[in-house]
Amino acid sequence: MENTKHKRSYETITKAVSYLLKWAVRAIYVLLALCLAGIIALLIIPKNLMNFDLANIEHINIYLFNVLSQIENPQLIGVINLKWILILLLVVGLLHLAFLQFILYKLRDVVRDVSEKHPFSAENVTRMQHIGFAYVGASVLFPILGSWLFTAAAHLVDLFQATIHFSINFQSLFMGIVILILSYVFDYGRNLQEDYDMTV
User: Which segments within 45-158 are labelled E, that is strand?
Assistant: First the structure.
């Protein structure tokens, strides 16, 4: 009776997670399409329509490390063109969404195999390794991308000369290493499952 109850709960949870991941993948597709449409629209729009007068800025809010700083009356002068800044932001957003979509795809397939009673399949081990390596790669690539975007934006608006200060995202790196360790645990479980199946 207790085993049946646990089995029913397990099946309900895996179905719910699978359903959520399926809709999350669809939502990311919509966001990717919107980013692409935004980039195409910005490329078509004439550059002179994207001019912005800095004198219209009354205050600047800077939110960094959970601290909000406000600069009142910054007294900026000149006109800047926002076209390429917005395109750069959308390109970076597109790359982040593509990374997230890759992770969700792999997770969806992992959950599908788990719900089909094949948690330790060779495919799941490979998927976990792909997710782990993706996070390790992202811990280096995304900070480089962010630094490049900031420098490019600063040079485009011609407000100040920016320099790149690169720092690895240790949270993503740690997450990637943990997932890679879990993939080897899955691989060990797969070997035990194969040994058990041959014994039976």
Answer: 51-53, 59-64, 67-72, 79-81
Amino acid at site 121: S
Helix (H) or strand (E) holding 142: helix 122-157
pTM of the model: 0.77
> What is the rounded distance in angstroms from the CA atom of residue 105 to the CA atom of residue 103?
5
- Residues constituting the chain: 200
Side chain identity at 77, as an amino acid letter? I
- Please state the domain extents for the chain: 2-45+82-199
Which amino acid type is present at position 163? T
Report how far residue 46's alpha carbon sits from residue 191's, in angstroms, rounded to the nearest whole number.
61
Give residue 158's region: left, alpha or beta (phi > 0; psi -120 to 50): left
Q: What is the pLDDT along the chain (200 residues), one digit of tens a residue?
A: 556 666 777 778 888 888 899 999 999 999 999 999 999 999 998 888 877 776 666 666 655 444 455 656 555 666 777 788 788 888 888 999 999 999 999 999 988 888 877 777 888 889 999 999 999 999 988 888 877 777 776 666 555 555 556 678 889 999 999 999 998 888 887 777 776 666 75
Identify which of 188, 193, 194, 186 has the alpha carbon closest to the alpha carbon of residue 124.
Answer: 186
Q: Work out whether the CA dihedral 80, 84, 87, 92 comes out positive or negative.
A: negative
